[in-house]
Each structure stands twice: as structure tokens, then as C-alpha cells.
Amino acid sequence: MDDETTATGQPTTPRTATPRPVTPRAQARERTMRRIVELGNAQLVECGAGGLSVREIARGLGMVSSAVYRYVRSRDELLTLLIIDAYGDLADAVDGALDEASEAPRERFTALAESMVQWAIAHPERWTLLYGTPVSGYDAPAESTNADGTRVMARMLAIAADADAAADAGASAGRGEGVHVTPDVRALLDAHLEEFGVESDAMAAMRAVTAWSSLVGIISAHVFRQLGADAAAIGEQILGSQTELLADLVIGR
Q1: CB-side exposure of 160: number of CA atoms within 13 Å?
Q2: Can you give the pTM of this predicted structure?
Q3: Are 219 and 116 in contact (CB under 8 A)?
Q4: Of 50, 92, 148, 158, which is the most exposed, with the fewest CB atoms less than 10 Å away?
Q5: Is 90 in contact with 156 (CB distance < 8 Å)?
Q6: pLDDT tens-digit series, residues 94-133
Q7: Is residue 241 pLDDT above 50, yes or no?
Q8: Mean pLDDT over all residues of the chain?
Q9: Worst-scoring range by mean pLDDT, 55-59, 84-88, 166-170, 219-223?
Q10: Average pLDDT for residues 54-73, to the nearest whole number?
Q11: How far apart (Å, rounded) are the C-alpha atoms in residues 246 and 197?
Q12: All domains of the chain in start order, with CATH
């Protein structure tokens, strides 16, 4: 008998697993975890990552310290929760901007860059947590943070691949063609392209990685006021010009 038919030859109805109902206890835990992240982000604004305190989280929840450790066991675990939350929020902002953009690679690159800038300006403490000075004694666990932490990079790789596919023969001028990329670097880039499901070559990926890391750098220079007071006053104008230069690298003219 065919596995897809009954004994009478009629198609079977596919079996689907019945989802387990979410219990009140699970719902309560989820609400508490969301509140822990909210309180942790408030602490970031008030005292920075170095001042995070699980005891203060417990006080904000109205719990004794021993009770809150059932939800978050250490300062490092709290940091990880906040990093995942920040990466996810930043990536959601980028995805929202890309949803509003056309399919033109340059417009998509600009939308990605501008949404990163706007998010960083709106959330400087969370940007600092992601891209500022590392917190002493803490190493973010890649198995927990990579999924959300690489979403923006995946979008950048896809934009670069689309730009490369659409470029004519002369469009590569000034986009880094001829730059030496070692076999080890090519292998790493190819592995990431495969990981993100992006069809492209290593040189387009190198342009994307260079643009992304440059964006992080120029946004940080603005958020941390590293260019001085005069530049800070027109910082967003400077960022606009720098973004155009990076678009030229990735997209061409």
C-alpha cells in the first residue's frame, strides 16, 4: 500500500502535530523575561554596561535576589540577554527600512545605512553595548548572539551580490577590483556566503564586509563624538557623505 493513500486508494490527510498549549506558568515566565530586559536596558541608560546589577533587576521586579536568579543567573547572562535584544532590535529596524525600499541596490544600501544611523542615535547606550568598548571580563557567547548579530551583515551581503549581478562590465572601476584577497580570506568569505544563502563571489563579499565595518566605525565616531564638537554639530551631514562613498564601493556608479 502506498504510504500516501488509504487501503481504498483515497489520499490520506497529512498528519500535523498538535501544538502544545502555552501554560500560564510559561506565559508568566515570558512576561518576566521581557521585564528583565526592559529593566536591564534602563540600567544601561542610567549607568552603562559596567554598572549592570542583577540585584537591581530583582528590586525592579519586586523580588528577592534569590528569586531573580531563577531567570537570570549572573551579570554575564544579563549582558547576553541585552546584546541579543539590541542586535534583534537593530536588525528589525534595518529590515523595516528595506521593506520600504525599492529593489534598486543603491536605494537598499542607503536604506540599510540610514536605518543603522537612526537606530544608533536613538539608542546610543545599546549601540555602545554592541560596538563600544568591550565589557571587562565578558565574552559574548557566539552560539547565543550570532543569529541576531549577523542579520544586518546578511542583508549587506545580499545587496552587494545584487549590485554585482546587475553591474555592467565597466562598473567595477573604483570598486576594489585587483585588490589581493588571500585564499584563506576567500575561503572564509565563501563559507559566510553559503551560511547566509547568498550567491556571490568573494570580491563582492569583501566589498560588503568592508562597507559594513566602515559603517559601524563612522556611526561610532558620530555617537561617541570622536570627531570633535565642530564635526558633531554637522555629524549627520558627514555621515550622509560617507554613506555615499561606501555605496560607491559596494554598488558603483
Answers
A1: 29
A2: 0.85
A3: yes
A4: 50
A5: no
A6: 999 999 999 999 999 999 999 999 999 999 999 999 999 9
A7: yes
A8: 88
A9: 166-170
A10: 92
A11: 23
A12: 24-73 (1.10.10.60), 85-251 (1.10.357.10)
pLDDT tens digits for range 156-172:
999 999 998 887 545 55
Spatial CA neighbour of 218 closest among 199, 243, 194, 195: 243
Given a cut of 70, whether residue 11 has pLDDT beyond it is no
Q: How far is the C-alpha of 202 from the C-alpha of 189, rounded, in Å?
A: 6
Which residue is it, cell 540577554? 81
DSSP string covering the chain, please? --TTB-TTSPBPPPP-PPPPPPPHHHHHHHHHHHHHHHHHHHHHHHH-GGG--HHHHHHHHT--HHHHTTT--SHHHHHHHHHHHHHHHHHHHHHHHHHHS-S-HHHHHHHHHHHHHHHHHH-HHHHHHHHSSPPTT----HHHHHHHHTHHHHHHHHHHHHHHHH--TTTTTTTTTT----HHHHHHHHHHHHHHT----HHHHHHHHHHHHHHHHHHHHHHTTTT-HHHHHTHHHHHHHHHHHHHHHHT--
